Predict the 3D structure of the following.
Amino acid sequence: VLKQLRQITVIGLGLLGSSITLAVLHRLKGVKSVGYSHRAITRRKARRLGIAQKVVDDIHKSVEQADVVILATPIRTFEDIFRQIARSLPDGCIVTDVGSTKREPHRWAGRLLPRNVYYVGSHPIAGSEQRGLEFARDDLFDEANCILTKTNGTRPDAIQTLSKFWSALGCKVKVMSPGQHDRILANVSHLPHVTVAALINANVDEELKYAGQGFLDTSRIASGPENIWTDVLLTNSVNINKGIDKMVVELRKLQKAMDSGDEKCLYRLLEKARNRRAALIKNKGKKKGNES
Amino acid sequence: VLKQLRQITVIGLGLLGSSITLAVLHRLKGVKSVGYSHRAITRRKARRLGIAQKVVDDIHKSVEQADVVILATPIRTFEDIFRQIARSLPDGCIVTDVGSTKREPHRWAGRLLPRNVYYVGSHPIAGSEQRGLEFARDDLFDEANCILTKTNGTRPDAIQTLSKFWSALGCKVKVMSPGQHDRILANVSHLPHVTVAALINANVDEELKYAGQGFLDTSRIASGPENIWTDVLLTNSVNINKGIDKMVVELRKLQKAMDSGDEKCLYRLLEKARNRRAALIKNKGKKKGNES
């Protein structure tokens, strides 16, 4: 049976992890926020900045009393961390993560976590190109979409508890399968990232001096940490590669219209993009902040 | 012989044109700023908002007393406007424009403008995705690069006068050939535009609901006016199409690395993009505002 929420443990104190402990500290009175980092310097900074109620240097002890454990490390560390904490997790504990892909984490959890704990995937679509707990914000999750992922074996009450938790941090929660999550995010988040990286790499430094603010805004996401993103790309490569194929089709359409001087076709393609962005802005209307 | 600057006439009162007349009004005391628009509603708005010293409804009269005439309309209207104003331009007048491509305007000017007036291309790399004189700003050009383009036939004193003019509006002026300009801008400005249009068009509306702030920032430039951009693409298609080919090569590199699970290669490609953007930001350091 799931317990009342008394302690949240966050493993990994980067921008997302530390923003979670900080938000719990400020917004969920009565819930103990515990943070773990494997790096001594990060733990020292976390203590000095007071971003969690308690900062622990033993990963086993950090989870022993937890009702919810949240992994906020690069995706491909999850497998190893599941293995490490499996025996220390208390009965009925909920385990989740904030990774940007979800099929692989579900697979690892199914294989490595004991049957008396409950895994649900979480993806709060928040963050920025910045990294590190120096940028922690207790309002990082305000108005952000948070996708929870479940399979047939996922416990409904674990979904319910996490749904309440993320809502309390300001998120709008949606639930879907890991497969659907990974297909959608490949298109709206991972494909933009590789596209912008390709755009920068297709340019030469000498010419980039003439780039305006448009280029800076367009390329902002490419400043995201390469280790985090390498893990995202490697755990969702099939979907992202389909996205790249679609990108190339669209680029070739524009190229063909330019080649043949097809003014109407060019106009329509640009108009379509502008209209869809206008609809997107209208839909996002009241959103603030820094999500990526 | 070039006269002392007493009157500037801007043809076309969109965001760029009206920001020029406004900046002249506020920053170049003693220089008369005259604006022309072929649309009655735009002229009324321009008069009401006081964005020029004088707003004129006859294009011939608007240029008769001008020392400098600046075209700020979509690029493919230049040919027709050159034809219209050719006989009304005073002796020694400098004609320029603010279009984002430069080879075609030079060609049209060479063919259509009389020998007693002097054409120079101007490209202040400023603006935003917004359109219309409601968004006019007298500081739009602060710290913006402004590229002047010249051929063998261009008069050095016309370059000098325009260089002083744009500097007075806040620009950092560079001079190059129209060919070099069009090659560089294809890569740093036009390619990003078509890339982002392709990225939006490769997505579906239903999924875009899950896009975060990163997608909104990346796609901002796609909200630029499609008529302006159709003209840019049609007058620089060879360079932009080469850029698209380079984009596809870079996308395929990422795709291949994902396909083969080549972690090191992916990491290096993402790291390269992040480092180059960091260098770009450092280089732009003190820039403000809204250029695109």
